[in-house]
Amino acid sequence: MKNLHVKILALFLIIIGTGVTYYKVTRLGLPVLPAEQTEVWMVEARLEFEAKGNQPVKARFYVPNNPLGFTVVDEDFISTKYGLTMEDNGINRIAQWAVRRVRGKQVLYYRIELAPEVAVPIKARSGITPPFPAVPDYPEPMGSVVQALLDEVRRKSADVASFTGELLVRLNAPNPDENVQVLRKGVEDSAAWVDRVIYILAGARIPARIVHLLQLKDGINHGTLTPWLEVHNGQEWLAFDPKTGSRGFPGNALIWYVGNDPLINLEGGSSPKVEYSISSQFQELVLVAERRARQINSMIMDFSLFSLPVQTQNVYRVLLLIPIGAFLIVVLRNIIGIKTFGTFMPILIALAFRETELLWGVLLFTGIVALGLLLRFYLEYLKLLLVPRLASVLVMVILLMAVISVLTHKIGLERGLSVALFPMVILTMAIERMSLVWEEHGPGEALQQGLGSLLVAVLSYLLMTNKLLGHLVFVFPELLLVVLAMTLLVGRYAGYRLTELWRFKEFLRKTDTR
Amino acid sequence: MILPWRRLRQLGILGMNQRNADYILPFNPRRHYPLVDDKRLTKQLALGAGIAVPQLYGLVDIVHQIRSLDKLLGPHEDFVIKPAHGSGGEGILVVTGRYKGRYRKASGIILTEEEIGHHIANILSGMYSLGGLPDTALIEYRVKFDPVFEAVSYLGVPDIRTLVFRGVPVLAMIRLPTRLSDGRANLHQGAIGVGIDLMTGRTSSGVWREQAIDHHPDTGGGIRGLEIPHWDAILELTARCFDLVGLGYIGVDIVLDRELGPLMLELNARPGLSIQLANKAGLRARLQRIQSLGEIPSAASERVALGKGLCNL
């Protein structure tokens, strides 16, 4: 199998190219379509307290720790004068601000930007399995009420999850009986209510804990944390709404911290206050994905084109499209069989079209080639040697370009200035080739090849200005390996070119009538 | 309805891609190309091997020599000027005689010495050479073609193109110049291609601009059934060209001179595919048969016999 080597190589390249792309799309969340945006939550916690003035201040403040369902895009601590240390105890993360001497009202900010996770979270919220709590010594009459309630719930449930659900439904009944009223007594806020539920659950030796959530809603200015309930079923933590008993966390909820401790622990200050302001905005998905990749320490993103300076990035936005144009030429020449002047001249013309825009590009190109051709025929009459003749055509091409620029500028057509972006050596060669073909094979053939070149240039222009393609090759440059693979395959394509069907039509005609 | 490319494949037509990928790339080592691309080298090799070629009158390889052109051309009433690295018959100037100190082209147009000098200067600067490299102009004997072609040739000299694969002649055609081709014998310039039966050396019908024809469009002469003189000698000459340059897939161009008989004009390492149209036969079966042979006979006559046997495929 003579082509086996090429086929295996091509397959290998395709697998690498699409594999890396797949990873980037699914894991890093890089967008397949251009200019995709994603919602990014900006949460700002504002800590305010009064410093006592005569002693050092230390403020310990819980901050989110790899929150479930979100990617941290950015995190900021704004606190001049204060020293900052971070602490991570496995469940919670604590920021500790400290300062030796400070006076009056103090304001500290913590800001976090979050993007929703692309993939389903891989890690389950398991962690260390907590020990079974001891049955509390309930005061009477609570003790007997709890016992009766737990017995009843146990009869109507199968496991920890259904037990907790059933218990919460009863405790939250809209028309509570006397027993439940007893249990509800003395509860002032929702955090205390969760504490009470945990206290009751301990009677059934079910480990439970309080989780503090921040509900993300755009335009919130004085947000506070919502307490939530989690129980452990021996394998993992299950979340429950302490007010309704429904399972899970509410949508767009950010787990701020876990546990009974107060959100802020202040030494050397008084009357601490924490307020949240929340806003949502849209950001380029590419940027978010880039930060996400950096966060999960993905090597691929470190070595991506995004790590280059912006100016260089812009160069590559154009350069990476050239292989696409080259592949188009490969197809047009080896599979279709279109004739052009030179192999890659149409790509260079197409690159110039990018700057001049298509209609102007075609007009300027045909104009210059036509005028150059006229001058070239005059030079032929002078019987010049080849290289001086080429140089003369080059000089005239540049003068023509200058004249066109000046004239169009005077008329007020600013687009005409972009003619200067044409690669003039290429124009010169095109004129020379065209005039040679004109003399050797007649004007028909010359026009045919000229129009062929122009057609290919227009097609590659259309391909190379395609937004989607430009985005794809820049964000996923490994896709060029796929282009390379296809080029290799065409390189071993031994079938007929489309134009050969026309060339050998005599054979086809004869056999059709037979 | 059979898809057209399926049909071509069934007929064994060789396409451009397959020619390049399966025959030119594997059988024509790149390092041997200079031997065929430089006509002067080919001529030397042929002379060394005793293969008849048109006599070389002189060479021009620096512009300065153009000044003394009259000395070089003086002894010759008629001659041909061609680029050593030309391809596709481009840049060839045929002078058939003189008129009052000027030169007459085959088409009857009179040229001054200055105009001939300019043409040579163009050749030297690489206008007709592959890749535009500086070139050399050859001045050589003008072939006086055999009278058998009188009725089917316009202005130029017909030549016999044979495709030789591994030294075995595979397919042959005669190329007849027309008014359209301006006396040149290249099909893409408008010459007629007429298939030749390898066995008998007799012409079949021709193809002109990809259409089948039976008569020469300019002279009206019938092109079918002509018998090529010295056919076996021609075949043997082409077969020997393989030993000359060590290329497995070549086109050999031979002209028939009235007095000197068959002369080898040039070799081509990338011969075109229209020979199939001229012969109304595909190349693939023949090439595959030759490819499947392990050993190729070293004697040219045996290879010719092998080539003749391909007609029954």
UniProtKB/TrEMBL annotation, chain A:
Entry superkingdom: Bacteria
UniProt cross-references to Pfam families, sorted A to Z: 7TM_transglut (PF14402), Transglut_i_TM (PF14400)
Transmembrane segments: 315-336, 357-379, 385-404, 416-434, 446-464, 471-494
Residue ranges constituting the 7 transmembrane helices usually fused to an inactive transglutaminase domain according to the UniProt record: 262-507
Name of the protein in question: Inactive transglutaminase fused to 7 transmembrane helices
UniProtKB keywords: Membrane, Transmembrane, Transmembrane helix
Annotated source species: Nitrosococcus wardiae
Ranges for domain Inactive transglutaminase fused to 7 transmembrane helices: 23-185
TrEMBL record, chain B:
GO biological process terms on file: SOS response
Gene Ontology annotations for the cellular component aspect, listed alphabetically: cytoplasm
Domain ATP-grasp: 43-294
Keywords: ATP-binding, Ligase, Manganese, Nucleotide-binding
Pfam families (UniProt xref): ATPgrasp_ST (PF14397)
MF terms in GO: ATP binding; metal ion binding; ribosomal S6-glutamic acid ligase activity
InterPro entries for the chain: ATP-grasp, RimK-rel_E_lig, RimK-rel_E_lig_ATP-grasp
SUPFAM superfamilies referenced in this protein's UniProt entry, alphabetically: Glutathione synthetase ATP-binding domain-like
PROSITE patterns for the chain: ATP_GRASP
Domain of life (superkingdom): Bacteria
PANTHER family given in the database record: BETA-CITRYLGLUTAMATE SYNTHASE B-RELATED, RIBOSOMAL PROTEIN S6 MODIFICATION PROTEIN
Record protein name field: Alpha-L-glutamate ligase-like protein
Species assigned in the record: Nitrosococcus wardiae
